[in-house]
Amino acid sequence: MATAKKAAKKPAAKKPAAKKPAAKKPAAKKSAAKKAPAKKAPAKKAAAKKPAAKRKPNAAFMKAMTPSTTLAAVVGSIPLPRTEVTKKIWDYIKKNKLQDAVNRRLINADDKLKAVFGGKGKVSMFEMTKLVSNHLK
Question: Which CATH class is domain 81-137?
Answer without folding.
Answer: mainly alpha
